[in-house]
Design brief:
The chain is α/β, with parallel strands linked by helices and 324 residues long. The protein has helices at 4-26, 133-165, 168-201, 203-222, 224-269, 272-279, 281-303, 316-323; strands at 35-42, 53-56, 59-69, 77-84, 94-99, 106-111, 126-129. A hairpin with a 2-residue loop joins strand 2 (53-56) and strand 3.
Length: 324
């Protein structure tokens, strides 16, 4: 039989072992599970802590063992984590620190590579850091913030301009403009009212005119075929005239123009009787001399008709001969 002291000591040791194992198990460290330890180097922690999960597509395959500064004093962060060897991981896999929930908890999500070489104990995987929720929000909100600032600046400028616009003579001019607009609207209302009164007073006339227009429209519609026939006949006649006479008329006019040009040229050159009559001075002088001689002859006949005309009255002819 064991003594009371031995039993007490055994219970204490077992309790301590259970406490230690339970604590590490809760942290993700299972001493009875086979696995390897892997490292990744980051520019910053990204909020990762010890005992947080290492996952593949959300499935846990390990946990973070330690987070510490790089020994080379570069200021970078080294994360040490355990991976269960039951899940082969390619050596070109990327370990990304990302959010596991909306509350900001972090995990290392392995983005599996396609290499043939598998990761071994003590290897270092490539790292990646997902943007935090705050960084994403800041990135999305920043353009809105800038636009809001620009809008506020524009509003401030507009208010300043409007304030200056309402000061001094400009205010008076603005009020006068508003008054003019109101007056124009009043006049427009009066014009509208007058139009309404005119329409009301001439309702019968307008109704009759509308009926006449409607009758005319109906008549045109009823005689549409006849009108189309008339218009088609007119078009046919125009086409016939154009096809039949236009060419011959133009050719005849062209020939007449050429002939007239030849006649005018002949007259200018003094060719032919008419050309000589137009261009010769001698013919003019001959005609003028003949006219003057004829004028003298007529004057002499008027003054001495007896020289040219014999007048016989009751035998006067015989007595004239006797006298001779």
């Amino acid at each position: 039989m064991f003594s009371r002291e031995f039993k007490t000591g055994a219970v204490v040791l077992i309790a301590a072992f259970i406490l230690y194992y339970g604590t590490n198990f809760l942290k993700g460290n299972d001493f009875f599970k086979k696995g390897i330890e892997v490292y990744s180097v980051y520019d910053k922690t990204g909020g990762i802590l010890k005992s947080q999960k290492v996952t593949i597509n959300g499935f846990s395959i390990g946990s973070v063992i330690d987070v510490f500064l790089h020994p080379n004093n570069s200021g970078k962060i080294v994360v040490k984590y355990a991976i269960d060897t039951e899940y082969p991981i390619a050596s070109n896999t990327v370990a990304e620190i990302k959010s596991s929930d909306l509350l900001g908890a972090k995990e290392i999500a392995l983005q599996l590579g396609n290499g043939s070489a598998m990761v071994e104990d003590g290897d270092t995987l490539k790292s990646s850091l997902e943007e935090s929720i705050s960084e994403t929000i800041n990135k999305e909100v920043l353009p809105v913030k800038l636009k809001a600032e620009e809008l506020l600046a524009s509003i401030d400028t507009a208010i300043s301009i409007f304030t200056g616009f309402l000061g001094g003579d400009i205010e008076m001019e603005f009020k006068e403009s508003i008054h003019s607009v109101n007056k124009s609207l009043t006049n427009l209302g009066e014009i509208t009212e007058n139009i309404n009164l005119y329409l009301e007073d001439n309702k019968d006339i307008l109704s009759s005119a509308t009926k006449n227009v409607e009758k005319m429209t109906n008549t045109l519609e009823e005689n549409r075929d006849e009108l189309n026939r008339v218009f088609n006949n007119i078009a046919d006649i125009s086409d016939t005239i154009a096809e039949a006479n236009a060419g011959s008329a133009l050719r005849s006019l062209s020939k007449s123009s050429i002939r007239l040009d030849e006649i005018v040229r002949s007259l200018e050159n003094g060719e032919g009787t008419l050309g000589k009559l137009v261009s010769s001075d001698s013919l003019y002088y001959d005609i003028d001399e003949t006219v003057q001689s004829l004028d003298k002859l007529l004057l002499d006949i008027r003054e001495h008709p007896e020289r040219y005309v014999e007048i016989s009255i009751f035998g006067g002819k015989k007595s004239r001969k006797k006298n001779k």
